[in-house]
Structures are given as C-alpha cells and as structure tokens.
C-alpha cells in the first residue's frame, strides 16, 4: 500500500486489553504505541474508571509491562485535569522514575457546558488556565534542570522546535494542521482528533 514509501504506524490505547500476542505483533511490525495513563493510581483513577466504576489502573500498568517486556516503543499520554494539576512534580516523577517513560505528552482537559443562559462555562473537571500554567512551569523547571535529552516532553520539544524555526511535532503549534488523521472505533475518519464531532 505504501507504493515504495515507508509507512509508520502508531496507535493510541488505554492498554487494558493488551496481550502477549498483541505485544509481539506491535514489536514485530514496529508500531509506536501511545498509552493513556494519568499518573499514579490515585490520579489515574480519579476519572479513568471502567464502566462499572472500578479502577482501570492495574490493567493499564499490566499493559505497559507487556510493552516493555516485548520491547515495543511506547509513549505516555497523560491527561491533566482539575485534580492532578495540583501535583505536577509527583505526576511527572511517576512517569520518569516509576514507569521509566521517556516520551510524555500532556493533554489539558478543557471542556465546557452551557450555563442557565447558554453561555459556555468550564466543567468542574477541567484544568483552569492558572492551574495549567503552574503545572507546566513546575514540570518545566524539573525537566530543564535534570532531564533534557533524557526525557522528551512533547510540549517542551515542540516549543523548542518552533523557537529554532523547525516544524514542531504538535499540530496546534504548526503553520498548518491536518497531518494527523484519526479513525474512530466505528470506522469514521476525521482530519484531527480535536474535531471528532458530527459537524466535522
């Protein structure tokens, strides 16, 4: 299908259903795997419980352990919300020291709902601008003092690329968007995972 071009595959998962068979396939076919995990169990379980309301953390950790055992290249995608934003260093150090993660993406939760007059208001679980800024500053100070070149934090790397005049790896910081399509569970395809809505 590549018609002579190299195809790089990646997938985003919460890792709860990974098996040895999947891990072997992902390794043998050189897939990059993004794993959604929101820090230590207390942070992760705040909003990432299963449909029955039970913790998903142990299954996510088991999935990461499988990826490591089969030498699958993976990175962590961590959601920053109203709860875990208050603990930036505990959050960051968990990925670095406990998971041995070397590639980390942060996604701030910023969702709105209409108030009584129909005006958009931040949801209770969203991270406020002040909390997001404090979180990033604290993590940056730790990263820049100890982990440059060892730990790759997507937002910091993309900012540096922009400053150097290079194309950043984050679409929201690039000159043009649209290089990272997304396919949903039902086969629907969108130009960006930030616009997975009927209107798009």
Structure description:
With 200 residues, this protein is α/β, with parallel strands linked by helices. Helices cover 34% and strands 17% of the residues. The radius of gyration is 18 Å and the shape is globular. The model has no long low-confidence stretch (mean pLDDT 89).
> How many extended strands?
9
Q: Write down the secondary-structure element order.
A: EHEHHEHEEEHEHEE
Number of helices: 6
Helix content: 25-40%
* Apparent shape: globular
The overall pLDDT average reads 89
User: Into which percentage range does the β-strand content fall?
Assistant: 15-25%
| Strands side by side in the biggest sheet | 1-2-3-4-7
Weakly predicted, low-confidence segments: none
**In this structure, how is the largest beta sheet organized?**
5 strands, parallel
Taking Cα atoms only, what radius of gyration do you get, to the nearest Å? 18 Å
Give the N-to-C terminal Cα separation. 27 Å
- Give the helix/strand class: alpha/beta
Summarize the structure.
The protein has 200 residues and is α/β, with parallel strands linked by helices.
What layout of secondary structure does this protein have?
Layout: E1 10-13, H1 20-28, E2 32-36, H2 41-47, H3 57-69, E3 74-80, H4 88-98, E4 103-108, E5 112-114, E6 120-122, H5 129-146, E7 152-153, H6 154-163, E8 182-183, E9 189-190
Parallel strand pairs: 1-2, 2-3, 3-4, 4-7
Antiparallel strand pairs: 5-6, 8-9
